[in-house]
Structures are given as C-alpha cells and as structure tokens.
Amino acid sequence: MSRQSSPSLRLYLDNNFLSCDCVDYDIYKAVFLLRKIRILDKTFCGKPDSLHGRRVISVPLEKFVCQLTERCPLGCRCAYRPESATMHVYCSNTNLTALPLQVPPLPKSYTKYKLDFSDNRLLRRLEHRDYFVKTSFLDVSNCGIERIDNWIDVFGVKNVYLHGNRLTSLPQSVATLNVSTKYLSLYNNPWTCSCDDKWMADWLSSTSRHLTFAKDISCKSPTRLRGKQILQISNKEFCSDPVSEARSLAVLTSTLSFAGVAVALLSFGVIVYRLRVKVYTRWRFHPFDRDECLREDMLYDVFLSCSSDDNLPHGNGIREQLEERGYRVCYPPRDFIAGETIFDNIYNAVVRSKRTVCFLTPHFLQR
Q1: Rounded CA Rg of the chain
Q2: Which three-class secondary structure state does DSSP give residue 49?
Q3: Number of neighbouring beta carbons within 10 Å of residue 167
Q4: How far, in Å, CA of 328 to CA of 123, rounded?
Q5: How many other C-beta atoms are found inside a 10 Å radius of the C-beta of residue 86?
Q6: Phi and psi of 89, rounded to 5°?
Q7: CA 193 centroid distance within chain
Q8: Burial status of residue 161 (CB atoms within 10 A of its CB: 0-12, 13-18, 19 or more)
Q9: Kind of pairing between the strands at 353-358 and 329-330
Q10: CA atoms of 174 and 185, how far apart (whole Å)
Q11: More confident residue, 278 or 21
Q12: CA 196 → CA 9, 201, 263, distances in Å?
C-alpha cells in the first residue's frame, strides 16, 4: 500500500509592492524571526515614499510605522511605532500654550506614549493629563513652564525633561514622593536659593541617580549665590547673608555713634549749665544770653536735639515757639538730609548752628 503525500500550499508574492507600515507589522516580524519563511524575499515596499522600491526583508523593523491623524493635536505629528511599542506625539516648537487635551488612543495595552512638547516658549504651566499614566517619555524642555500642577504625574513617567524652563522652586512635598523616574532633568532653571529652600540640596543629593546633569542645577537668586551649584551649598550658606549681616552691623554702629554723640553733647550741656555762673564771672562769657557767633555764616540759631519719641508733640511744640520768636531752628525730622548717616547729619547740624539744645527726657536718656 503506497503512502499518499499530504497536500501542500505554496504562496507566491514575488514582485508585489506592499505597504511597509505598522498594519502588517506582526507578519513582517514573523518573517524576520523565522528566516526559513521565504515568502517575502522578492517583494518590495510600495509605501511610504521613503521606502519605495526597497526589498521588504531589507527594511529594519523600526521603520514599519503608521502616521496617524485621528485625534492628533493640531500642528503636531503622531506616529505608532510597534517595534518600540510607543505612540509618538511630536509637538515641538508648535506654539503650544497648553498641553493637548487628547492624543491618539493606544492600539495595545502595553503601548506607551512618547510625548515631545519641547521648545514651546508660550507653555507656562504643566497641567495634569490622563494620558500621563500611560507615558514613558515626556519632553517639555526649553519651554516657559513656571508651575507644575501635580509632581506625582512627573515622577510617574520614566523619562522626563524639564530643563530650560522658568521653575524657581519646588514644593517641599516632593521630598515625600516616590521617584520612579529613571531620567529627570532640572538644570537651566532660575532656581531661588533662599533659607526656605535649603532642603532642596539634600533632596537633589538623594535623587541624584535619577538626575541628568545634576551638577548644572544652580541658583539664579539671591545674587550672592548666583551660578553656584545647589548640591555644593551648605545649610548655613542658604541662610547666612553676609551683606545683610554687614548692614545690620553698620546700623548698630551708627546707632551707638549717635548715642555716644548725644551723651557727649548732653554731658557738655550739663557741665556748661552748672558752671554758667563761674564762666560768666571769670571770663565774662555767658552763652545763654548773648550771640557769640556774630558775623559768622551760621545756617541756624539753634539745633534742637530730642528723642524721636518726643518729637510729637513736645519737640515740635518747642520748635514752633522758637520760630515764632524769629529763631532759625534745625529740627531733625524736617531738616536732616535723607540718605546721609545719623552721625553726619548730627555733625553738620552742630557745626552749622549757633547753639545746640538737648530736650532731656527719659526717652532721650534711654537712647
């Protein structure tokens, strides 16, 4: 008894021109993996134009792509790439002012979005979008982003590029979030390095394995820390301002100088007053009832020195009485020159006045 041969089927596709896109990707992949299948050896690509005339088996699998228009944002390009299991949405430099509300649906459950929204300077805010949960690549670099609504969205994406934006600070709550991002770029942002932001150095250090160009994350303000790498700034440097400290010291020095001058003037006045009879008897000199500055170019007849707590109403009342009697009074709240130090103002008032009168009160003595 002879054995009957089993029927066989042979399919010939020689010299046909096929669409080399994502639609028949599974077939193309099977042919590439099973080299014994010779069905596509003599077939060629008819579409797209960039692959026209090439033998199908010579085209790399990543070239089998579908360009999509359905739900693709206006001005953007969308493409499904089955080889990398990604849906690419290219919106770079398209004058976006907000993130697209919708993008093409994913054809497979394991497919991820690859979103390129870079170089959109009018994009000021990174808002939440539902498609972030299915995104593996988010590029919003070199935009104008000043605010991020939800950092959980950011840290859930594998690759995030935020460099070249306008971010100045991070909410301290990010330190409690789980960072699953593999690559995160934050450099070239105008970071503020105030005392309230000192925690950033520790956080950046703890997440440095996820950061690209971590050493380029630097301060924009304050001026004393401009250009300095945040990772190199200590907690003390964040909070210590040598300029402010020097200014405080200068104010303290000026205050002490003023107090010293006031005490010296007061002491001199008391001594002269107590010895006024002896001075008059011995030298025939009485500063209280004659003008010793005749023919001298004095601006004022009297410099009225009193505590700022006594200016109103007492100090001002004395000034008014003196001026009503024709005296020219140097009155600090009115005549001291703004911008000059207390010491210089007091010195100029003393040397330009015929007399110095101190309004002696508990407030004056306390200062």
Answers
A1: 42
A2: helix
A3: 19
A4: 65
A5: 18
A6: -125, 110
A7: 8
A8: buried
A9: unpaired
A10: 15
A11: 21
A12: 76, 11, 42
pLDDT at 9 over 50: no
Q: Strand, coil or helix: what is 258?
A: helix
CB 219 within 8 A of CB 228: yes
Residue 215 has pLDDT above 80, yes or no: yes
Q: Is the pLDDT of residue 27 over 60?
A: yes
Q: Is the dihedral of CA 51, 54, 59, 65 positive or negative?
A: positive
SS3 content of the chain, % helix, strand, coil (to 5): 40, 15, 45
Q: Is the peptide bond before 242 cis (omega within 30 degrees of 0)?
A: no
Predicted confidence band of residue 17 (pLDDT cuts 50, 70, 90): confident
Contact between residue 306 and residue 315 where contact means Cβ atoms under 8 Å apart: yes
Query: Which pair of structure tokens corresponds to residue 223?
Result: 């001026």
- The confidence score (pLDDT) of residue 289 equals 55
Start-to-end CA span in the chain (Å): 131
The pLDDT assigned to 1 comes to 45
Q: What is the pLDDT of residue 220?
A: 92
Alpha helices by DSSP H, the chain: 25-33, 151-155, 199-206, 235-239, 242-274, 276-283, 316-324, 332-335, 342-351, 362-366
Which residue has better confidence, 104 or 332? 104
Instruction: Please write the tens of the pLDDT for every residue from 142-177.
Output: 999 999 999 999 999 999 999 999 999 999 999 898
* 184-214 pLDDT, tens digit each: 999 999 999 888 888 988 899 899 889 999 8
- Quickly list DSSP for 307-322: -GGGIIIIIHHHHHHH
Residue 198 φ/ψ, nearest 5 degrees: -65, -25
The pLDDT value recorded for residue 52 is 86
Q: What pLDDT, in 10s, does the model give residues 262-311?
A: 787 787 777 766 776 666 566 655 555 556 666 567 888 888 888 777 77
All domains in the chain, ordered by first residue? 17-58 (no CATH), 61-240 (3.80.10.10), 243-366 (3.40.50)
Residue 213 contacts residue 187 (beta carbons within 8 Å): yes
Tokens of 49: 């134009």
